[in-house]
Structure formats: C-alpha cells, structure tokens
Design a protein that fits this description.
This protein is an alpha/beta fold and about 260 residues long. Helix content is about 30%, strand content about 20%. The longest helix is centred in the C-terminal third of the chain and has 17 residues. The chain is globular.
C-alpha cells in the first residue's frame, strides 16, 4: 500500500509550531485516512467547532492544508475515501471527518464510550459532538486479536490487510495507534501517545512546556508514561523496516515526507 504523509493543520502554540500528521493510504478498495486533521467546516465556523482551545493552539485553518484539498492535489479523488481511522476524537484529529461524509469512522470502543455514551464531565468539555453530527457509519473495536510487535493489536481486515489497530489508551480513554504496511516498511502512526521525539529516541531533551502540555491533556498520566516506555523500546530496537511518527512533531513529519 502506498502511504502519503500530510500536514492537515499547522498549530502555532506559544512555544512551538506543530503539525497535524495525517496518513492517506491507497488500497485496492479506495483510500483510507489515519486521522483527518482540521477540515473545511472548522475553517467556516471555528468558534463553534473548535471552541476555546483554538486560542491556545492557534490553528492556521488554511484551506490548502485540509485533507480534502490535499488529496485533490495528489491527483486522487476525495470521493474515494472509504474509511477514516481515528487515533482519538480530539478536534485536531477528526475535524476534517465531515469533509468525507460517506466514509466509515473506525475507532476503539473505549474511545466511543468516552466521547459519546455519555462522556464524563472532563470528556464532555474535551469532545465536540458536532464533529460527527453528520452521523457517519461507525465501527468500534476492542483489539481482540494477535499481537503486533509485542503490542495488543487487531488487524482491520474489513478495511484492508496490513492495517492494524494498536490501542494505546492514556492521552484519551480509548486512544490508539495505527500501523500500516507500506511495503518496504511499516508506518506506525502513534497519534498523541507521545508528542516529542525525545520521548522515544532516548537522546533528545523534551522541553518543559511540552511535558506540561502532555500532562494537562492526559486522561491517564500513568498510562501515558507506560506508552512512552513501550514505544521507546520499540523505537530503539527497530530497524529501517519501521517508521514511528506521532501526531504533531514537525521534524518527524518532515522526515516521513522525505523518506516516503
């Protein structure tokens, strides 16, 4: 499968410029997105759809960065997007979902429970039901399958062989990573399981403000730390057959684009 790496939302935080890293996967049955970044409806109505957090993360909200427009720039048809796999349901990861109204939304059952049935008080503040108000078909998973590189996982054969859900709760109740077999290597999109390469590479200092932000956004900080440790072991023990990326680091995104 061919994997394209897109930045679907530049975030201009006071201390760093981040990206919203989205995968577009070409399969024999159409296109699959891993996350969707910000979308056209977010640009049209940021106050309602993105709320107060937009004053902190200061998204660029550039139509040229939306997945729907970048897919066209790739010479592909946005109407061929059959599936969107969400690492989690924060607005910077699924705001663009509504630009693909016929796509099926795939997520963990825990994430659906935390965001939709009904959420806790903290989750009610965090998640915005308007992002799925167009009522997409939703498929939920409990990760009941074989392991993937030592992680509990479930291959999404209903989408395509070689796409694997790797649950990593912590950032949200049902957060997940997604692994994609790109032929010459696997790409593991870890979402917000970590937010800075220093969490996994063992050598790059993690800025204090990154750590503060990560802790503030964590549903369960202990699980976040556990994800860091497991991903660091995977990162440091793997070779060129595996590329690990996170949802927001610009350097990791740029490296993925160059090496795709």
């Amino acid at each position: 499968m061919k994997v394209h790496h897109l930045n679907c939302g530049t975030l201009r935080l006071p201390f760093a410029t981040l990206v919203c890293h989205v995968l577009v996967v070409e399969t024999g049955e159409g296109l699959v997105l891993v996350d969707a970044g910000f979308g056209m409806r977010d640009i049209a109505d940021p106050a309602t759809r993105l709320g107060v957090p937009r004053y902190f993360n200061r998204p660029a909200l550039d139509p040229a960065e939306t997945a729907v427009n970048q897919i066209r720039e790739l010479g592909l048809d946005p109407g061929d997007v059959r599936h969107v796999i969400a690492t989690h349901l924060d607005s910077d990861h699924i705001g663009g979902l509504a630009d693909f109204p016929d796509a099926t939304l795939h997520l963990t059952a825990a994430e659906a429970l935390g965001a939709m049935r009904p959420p806790t008080r903290a989750e009610r503040y965090r998640f915005n039901p308007l992002l799925w108000a167009h009522v997409p078909k939703i498929v939920e998973y409990r990760a009941e399958g074989e392991s993937w590189r030592g992680f509990t996982a479930q291959e999404l054969t209903d989408i395509s062989p070689g796409i694997v859900l790797v649950p990593m709760p912590g950032h949200t109740r049902g957060h997940t990573a997604v692994a994609v077999d790109a032929g010459d290597r696997w790409v593991l999109h870890a979402g917000d399981a970590f937010m800075h390469p220093g969490r996994v590479d063992g050598r790059t200092p993690v800025p204090l403000l990154h750590s503060v932000m990560e802790n503030m956004l964590a549903h369960d900080r202990a699980l976040v730390r556990d994800n860091h440790a497991r991903l660091a072991h995977l990162y440091q023990s793997s070779g060129p057959d595996l590329l690990i990326v996170c949802g927001h680091d610009r350097g990791m995104f740029e490296h993925a684009v160059v090496t795709a």
